[in-house]
Structure formats: structure tokens, C-alpha cells
């Protein structure tokens, strides 16, 4: 799973594994596709790890991407090019739209594969695309999340994807409080959440979920408002 964790990063690499035809071992594919360059060596692995930083116009291992995609995912076929439907399934519509032109750009299949995949992989990390691709939340919530992101240093944007894992510490401290306040989901004075509005805008907590313990958290909260809001929001999101 080397390249998957490395190139394709962390967010939902499980999805990606699902997308590879069953039984295909990534290591074998890497050996095969890197054979013209000396195989899957430590040095080549290190170069591959910088795949995202490779130039837009020059593939460091010429024709590698064509070979790799052709063998491991269902998003591309050497003869037919990229499969729009599968690209959308895997990367989301906004990444697809942003890269649409690149998916067909090139003088041959090697160039097309590289142009397209390089674009997809780089776009995928873009936090604004990530927000656009969150399912089941309203446009209003997406807008609030994007506006809030602008209040934070761009260095912190890279941590947005970590929210999907609900870590104990908030990945971007105070970000949740920002969009919660912007959408007026929490009344600071009354210390009360507007559950109806949360369900409408964010789709959480689930209908009929038991949220007693989440509600009681705000009664006990004392000083750190940002951490408290994040913790309670996590609780609402995970409650069933
Ligand atoms: C790509 O498509 C062609 C034509 O439909 C097919 O023969 C070939 O097996 C496909 N290649 C892969 C790797 O799926
Ligand atoms: C096609 O090849 C030419 C000449 O090598 C190159 O300048 C051009 O960028 C290539 N086109 C694309 C879309 O990559
Ligand atoms: C909760 O939000 C809705 C709008 O979604 C609003 O109509 C309602 O008055 C709010 N309830 C409270 C208690 O603030």
C-alpha cells in the first residue's frame, strides 16, 4: 500500500483501496511500472513520494502514471482514457470539474495519464474542494466553513482533512467554533445548542440519536470555549 499512503495521502485512502481491482498488489504494480527506471528501489520510492511536487509539465518517470493507473484503479484505461464516472466517484465532482480539461490533455496516453492524475491528486488536497465534497451538509454550511477557513493561516489548512477522524484535539483549533457561531448554532448566553438548525444545516445529530451526554457536556464546560464546542460537536456527530 506504499504509494497509496504516500502519493494519495491520508484522507480516505480506504476508498481508494476499494477502488483497485481485487487481488492487485500495489507493490507488484510498482515493480512493474518502475522497471524501466531500475525497479521499486528506495531511491525511486523517495522520488515517488514527491509526486505531487513534480512539475505540471514533466513526469519524472516518463509514462509511469499511465502504467500505474492502468493496473491499479478503475479510473483510467490506456485505450479509453479516464473514466469520467469513476473519477467523479473517487475524487468528487468539483475536483473532476477543475481537472476536466487535463483529463484529456496530452499528445499520447502517457501524457494524458500524467496530466490528469497529477491534477486530480493535487486538487484533492485543496481544502475548498474538500468542503465542497462533504456530503449531506447544506450550501449555507459550506459557505460558513469556507469563510471561516479564510480566518486561519494557510499553513493550517492542510489539517482540514483530519476532521474526518474526529481526533481528540481539534485539528485547527477554534475552527469549529467559528462556523458554529457563524451559523448561530449555539447560544453562548443560554449555553444551548439549536439542534433543529444543526440537523438542517449540518445533518447532525442523527434523527432520534441519543444526545443526552452531549448536551450535558456544555453544562460542565468552563474555560476553553473552542475545545468545548469542538468536543460537543464531535459528540453530536458521533451519537447514534
Ligand atoms: C481497456 O479497455 C480495452 C478496450 O475496452 C480492454 O480491452 C482492456 O482490457 C482495458 N484494459 C484494462 C487494463 O482494463
Ligand atoms: C505535445 O508535445 C509538444 C512537443 O513535445 C509539447 O510542447 C506539448 O506540451 C505537448 N502537449 C501537451 C498537451 O502536453
Ligand atoms: C433555531 O434555528 C432556527 C433556524 O434554523 C430558528 O428558526 C429557531 O428560532 C432557532 N431556535 C432557537 C431556540 O434559537
From TrEMBL:
<comment type="similarity">
    <text>Belongs to the PBP/GOBP family.</text>
</comment>
<keyword id="KW-0964">Secreted</keyword>
<dbReference type="InterPro" id="IPR036728">
    <property type="entry name" value="PBP_GOBP_sf"/>
</dbReference>
<dbReference type="GO" id="GO:0005549">
    <property type="term" value="F:odorant binding"/>
</dbReference>
<dbReference type="GO" id="GO:0007608">
    <property type="term" value="P:sensory perception of smell"/>
</dbReference>
<dbReference type="GO" id="GO:0005615">
    <property type="term" value="C:extracellular space"/>
</dbReference>
<keyword id="KW-0732">Signal</keyword>
<dbReference type="Pfam" id="PF01395">
    <property type="entry name" value="PBP_GOBP"/>
</dbReference>
<protein>
    <recommendedName>
        <fullName>Odorant-binding protein 83cd</fullName>
    </recommendedName>
</protein>
<dbReference type="InterPro" id="IPR006170">
    <property type="entry name" value="PBP/GOBP"/>
</dbReference>
<feature type="signal peptide">
    <location>
        <begin position="1"/>
        <end position="19"/>
    </location>
</feature>
Amino acid at each position: 500500500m506504499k504509494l497509496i499512503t504516500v502519493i494519495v495521502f491520508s484522507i480516505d485512502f480506504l476508498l481508494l483501496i476499494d477502488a483497485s481491482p481485487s487481488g492487485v498488489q500495489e507493490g507488484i504494480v510498482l515493480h512493474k511500472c518502475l522497471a524501466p527506471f531500475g525497479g521499486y528501489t528506495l531511491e525511486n520510492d523517495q522520488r515517488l513520494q514527491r509526486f505531487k511536487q513534480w512539475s505540471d509539465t514533466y513526469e519524472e518517470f516518463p509514462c509511469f502514471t499511465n502504467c500505474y493507473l492502468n493496473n491499479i484503479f478503475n479510473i483510467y484505461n490506456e485505450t479509453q482514457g479516464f473514466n469520467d464516472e469513476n473519477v467523479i466517484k473517487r475524487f468528487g465532482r468539483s475536483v473532476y470539474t477543475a481537472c476536466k480539461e487535463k483529463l484529456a490533455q496530452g499528445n499520447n496516453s502517457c501524457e494524458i495519464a500524467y496530466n490528469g492524475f497529477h491534477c486530480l491528486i493535487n486538487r484533492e488536497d485543496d481544502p475548498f474542494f474538500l468542503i465542497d465534497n462533504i456530503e449531506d451538509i447544506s450550501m449555507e454550511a459550506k459557505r460558513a466553513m469556507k469563510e471561516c477557513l479564510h480566518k486561519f493561516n494557510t499553513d493550517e489548512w492542510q489539517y482540514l482533512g483530519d476532521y474526518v477522524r474526529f481526533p481528540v484535539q481539534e485539528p485547527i483549533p477554534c475552527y469549529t467554533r467559528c462556523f458554529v457561531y457563524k451559523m448561530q448554532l449555539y447560544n453562548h448566553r443560554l449555553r444551548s445548542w439549536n439542534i433543529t438548525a444543526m440537523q438542517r444545516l449540518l445533518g447532525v445529530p442523527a434523527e432520534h440519536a441519543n444526545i443526552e451526554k452531549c448536551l450535558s457536556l456544555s453544562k460542565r464546560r468552563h474555560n476553553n470555549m473552542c475545545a468545548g464546542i469542538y468536543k460537543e460537536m464531535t459528540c453530536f456527530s458521533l451519537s447514534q
